[in-house]
Amino acid sequence: MIEIKRWDNGEVIHSGDFADLKECLVDGVSKGISFYRAELNGAELNYAELNGAELNYAELNGARLNYAELNGARLNYAELNYAELNGAELNGAELNRAELPKLSASICAGEEYWVFINPQVVQAGCEHHSPEDWRKMTKEKIAAMDGSRSLRYYPRLLDLMDLFLGKGDRPDWVTEEPTPT
Fold it and tell me: Which of these, 122, 114, 127, lies nearest to 168 by C-alpha position?
């Protein structure tokens, strides 16, 4: 029997005969169950489909959410300290006052795309890659993402990465003349 409980009062939110915590959580999310204040510290949730999950105030400290789908998930005030989010999809996710992994930044105001930056993964819009992969992108690969819009934004993304992660390499093509719109 697997149980997911609230961290504040121990109340069982969802339970059943599941192989693991991930299966229990995915089942609950598919049924629209709110995991408000769920205690999920250290959970193995890699590749979990959690789109639209209600995880406000949840504790996910040290959880592994690599390549998890969290599009439209509500993670307001959630604790995500030391969580692994490599390749996780966070499009439209609510992260208001969430405690993000150390050295992370979530930027939306004034930017062309929603941007999430941490040392393991950088997401701009729906594209997510390691910082090293972003810094090696070819002009053709960037153009394939969103055409001239992504080509214009790419130097800005590199600037943001430099600001939050430290100065890094840039492809030679970035210094070429901008593509006309």
Answer: 122
